[in-house]
Amino acid sequence: MMRVKFYKPINETLKKYIKGYYFFLEKDEYDSICYWTFPNNYNIVSVTQNVSIIKRDNKIMITPSKEKNIFSHITYRYDTPIEIFYEKPLNEITIYFEPLGLNFFTDKVEVYYSKDNTKEVEFDPFPDFKKEMEKIFSIQEREKQIEQLEDYWLSKFVHKDVSMIKELIADIEANAKIEEVAKKHKISRQYLNKIFQKNIGKSPSEYRKIHRFRKSITDKNQVKNLTELSYENLFYDQSHFVKDFRDLTFKSPKTFFEKINTERETVWFFP
Length: 271
Description:
By secondary structure, the protein is α+β, with helices and mostly antiparallel strands. The protein has two domains: 14-155; 163-269, Homeodomain-like (Arc Repressor Mutant, subunit A, Orthogonal Bundle). Helix content is 37%, strand content 20%. The chain is built from ten helices and ten strands. The strands form two sheets. It has a five-stranded antiparallel β-sheet with strand order 1-8-3-6-9, covered by helices on one side. A hairpin with a 2-residue loop joins strand 4 and strand 5 (59-64). The chain is globular and about 50 Å long. It starts with 17 loop residues before the first strand and ends with a strand. The mean pLDDT is 89. Residues 162-259 form the HTH araC/xylS-type domain. This is Helix-turn-helix domain-containing protein. It comes from Flavobacterium procerum.
């Protein structure tokens, strides 16, 4: 099984908006990679070089292409597992932005969120984006790659006041009823939904379901059993806990935790 190193941002500003990133390199020693990734609330930007990408149902296939290209896409919303298959080694940089992270680097986020997420959503936010990503691929040393990657995103950073949206997110994460959150902030439920769709790419109920699931993964090693885990993460009861896990992973909580290493930054399942 191939091991993937997940890098945390070095820059203190970027740490607030980017969870981390990983690299695949064409020179890596593997024949192919196949793994399953599970729903999360990050906005994931992947940049690949000289590839062909096909997305069908819950599977993404990445194969080498003779055509020279830089293909970048964003994954912002999925509520079932996705199977990722790489036919051969290739160059790829994948960046995990915090739920509101991309809003601080581009004003076009809602344009991407309005597209059909069942298909590959191409991400090309700046005139120099693909050119700069290609330069980073050409760098041989990982430290210099990271330095240039972070310098590039810092050059696009614009501070914004998102205090209201942060309060809404905090209330949803605390498991407050959606109607109560809307009432507290003196907005309609429809407007609350619109705010989430525009700024995060999913509805409040979708966000909360995935947040609860991901928090249970993080908390797994701090509790005695699955019953306690479901209670600590605000599931209504054990059956609700099991249902959400089956929806989001196609597995029961017991099976999921037996197969997945929850201590790793990338919670993937390698068949």
